[in-house]
Amino acid sequence: MLLGRDGARETLVDSRDLGRDVVIQAIWAPRSGKVFAFFCSEAGADIGKLRVLDSEDGRVLDELEGSIRCPTWLDDASTYYYVRLYRDEKTPDGVEPPADRVFLREDGRDEMVFGEGLPTSHFISLRASSSGRKALLEVSYGWTRSTAYGGDLKDPGSWRFVYGGGDFIVHHVDFAAGGYILASYEGRGLGKLIQVRDGLAREIVGEHEHPLQEALVVGEHLVAAYLVDASGCLRAYALDGHLAGEWRPEPQGTLALLDSDGSEALIKYESFAVPYRLYALGRDGGLRLLDEVALDLAGKLVIRDRWAGSKDGTPIHFFEARLKGAEPRGAVAYGYGGFGISITPTFNPIFATLLEDGVLLAVANLRGGCERGEAWHRAGMREKKQNVFEDFKAVLRALKGAGLRTVAFGRSNGGLLVGAVLTQEPGLMDGAVIGYPVLDMLRFHLLYMGRAWVPEYGDPDNPRDREFLRAYSPYHNVRPGTRYPPVFIYTGLHDDRVHPAHALKFAAKLRDAGADVLLRVETASGHAGASPEVKAREAADVLAYIYKVLGVTPS
């Protein structure tokens, strides 16, 4: 959908016109607006098609198949770069998958222009600066280190090292005031804003007590999003580092800095009962509401910051959302805890439905995420992964201690979380929802994209790593004769990121151990999602299970 500055709307492409189960996963456009591109796939698979369309008449101008992202146009809007992920075959320069390479696409021909020689499991992101003159590239390995490159957008031969290369993450912000603006996470790992000019780096904004999430350049200011107890906070700084203003939306929520053309930025806010609000932030610092979708539920909720003590005494923050003035009819605890992903208040139709029906929602900020900076992430990686499970147990104990029947809920790496706690202390939950999960920690690296996760989890082929992976691997720790709560496991056959075998094997092993297990296998969904109809059916089954476990009659 195209949303004009005056609020006018125009549908550019509708997934229903592409096929019954086709999912549009991402969309890009150059500053000119003459064309736009989207990536779509059958049933939410990671492998799909990139299509480039004319914005005026909707004609398909170009199409690429595979795992494609980051289309970045040159001035004429007909020539563009893109990043291709080699998942199953070697790169053109002979490197084993998975690995990324950057190509220039011109007149239907492709030329590899960046990435030659980069080893396996090194991934590339690419975009243009807000001026459209500079290429901003990042090369990452795992979720703890990256390197920034840059140069003339029109001349890939000029793309050179800018900053990074150590054991820390660095992200491009923009090119402004004659230099590259970057967010760097060296030091305490909370994030600082720097400028690199003529090879020399200077600090603009130093580390704060709160972690930096992302930043944009708007006029003569840097607009930065921080997390304060896992809730979004916006700060504006002059390019000399002086604080110019701060904004914390209410209620607690998530802020995403979507884009900037250098003079105006697009910002999205969402929360448990607010699907989205879109704001334009101008050079003068003024916020203008462009569009929103809000529910009546927003005025009925109270959202509190709560804390629980983990096994080692570490305080664990979690959001508690519930209906005002009503006793909760049970609880759902949601967690993730990995890959440096911060779990913040976002809109989820399943959770909104449960909240409407009086169920308390607890969203946990566990080690392994980045809610308290990179050190928090690393405290939940590799041999320290058990910390994540202990953190979640603390939240479950707080809910059970309040006398609430509780369902533990996790998806993907969060499915690993719930599976591990289920097999370690099944008495902490009255039910478990495990979606699209990673559960066999001794074979994950052999299935689909699993090899890319070795830096985060560890290498099962390394005897030392295998020992700590075996100790918590949910599939390998199911014990016959153990009293497990009822378990709902769901996956999709088009999930080509986390192999459905994880879910299928775990369900079978739990059943063999005498557990009450429901296994839902969707034929038209993947890790990246599904059509609205398929997602609605899946959500209905998840809700039915939760209502049954909690003994709640839906309204």
What Rg do the Cα atoms give? 23 Å
User: Order of strands in the sheet with the most strands?
Assistant: 26-27-29-28-30-31-32-33
Assembly state: single chain
Let me know the number of strands: 35
Fraction of residues in helix: 10-25%
Strand content: 35-45%
> Which ranges are low-confidence, i.e. pLDDT below 50, for 5 or more consecutive residues?
none
Biggest sheet layout: 8 strands, mixed
The coarse overall form would be globular
Report the CATH C-level class of the largest domain: Alpha Beta
Number of helices, counting only DSSP H or I runs of 4 residues or more: 8
Q: From the coordinates shown, what is the CATH architecture of the largest domain?
A: 3-Layer(aba) Sandwich
In round numbers, the mean pLDDT is: 95
When the domains are counted, the total is: 3
Provide the CATH topology of the largest domain. Answer: Rossmann fold
What is the assigned CATH homologous superfamily of the largest domain? Alpha/Beta hydrolase fold, catalytic domain
Derived structural class: alpha+beta
